[in-house]
Amino acid sequence: MNHNALGIDIGGTNIAFGIVNPKGEILYETSFPTKSFETPEIFVDFVYNHLSEKELLTDLKGIGVGAPNGNHFTGEIRYAPNLQWKGIIPLAKLFKEKFNIETILTNDANAAAIGEKLFGCAKDLENFVTITLGTGVGSGVFIGGEMVYGEHGVAGEYGHIRVIPNGRLCGCGRKGCLETYASSTGVVRSIHELDSPLKATSKLLEIENPSAKDVFDLALDGDAFAQEIVEFTAQILGSALADFACFSDPKAYVLFGGISQNGEAFAEKVKAHLEANILNIYKDDIQILISSLNNKNAAVLGNAASILWKSYQ
Q1: What is the DSSP secondary structure assignment for residue 108, as one 8-state letter?
Q2: Tell me: the pLDDT tens digits for 157-186?
Q3: Which domains, and CATH codes, for the chain?
Q4: How far apart are alpha carbons 102 and 90 in whole angstroms?
């Protein structure tokens, strides 16, 4: 009887995959740059051959794939703005045909939420939202202990709710989306696009290709402009989460990946801006948590969990 699951996380920058057992232990994992795979077909063949060479195909019960704009119902990636694979991609079908086992494709943030529910800090929560802060911003919504998929299988696109009228141009083609401000790439954009008198003396300008991590590291070291960017990012995110609470009434927001790994200090800033903007009926009742899976490969865990989740229901 097969017990383990293959978890695959497709991000705008990297693709990670690994084998996970029902206890949430990662038995094997690896990652490669997303641009290494010119087509999805090349990628599927590569994963199969890689695991075959390592003799890791024999105990798999299924494959869980998380991807931007992943449609849970159709198994397709649909017009993902942060991926080089364009259009509609029937990825679940490609994996199922190659591996001949059940394959579930879902939004990467939904997979992260399932992983958090099974193995992380949301084990005892019935109503929560996981907010993924990576190349983009995603969200996985649990209401009443059930994942919310919506009519088209893509519910929870919080990253593409517009928070600034006619704001920054987003990869989706619209302007002002949350992910253009609160993602790792959004933080880097703030280095160049935030108008501040503190910019001229910032050490950020001395770095050839600064990253979001550079911003947070320099903020800790006292760089005033970096601190301003961190505060601006927390303000945008906290204010947006205050509005989003009106939809699902969560017990907690769980910040996952990317800039959330800067820990409780950032979470406290987000919480302060949430409380400053939230409707009175929710005041002081919504937690901001940092994913307890951040020190593991939570993306791989989450995607495998979409297969393992069935065993718990």
Answers
A1: H
A2: 899 999 999 999 998 899 999 999 999 999
A3: 4-115+296-312 (3.30.420.40), 124-290 (3.30.420.40)
A4: 14
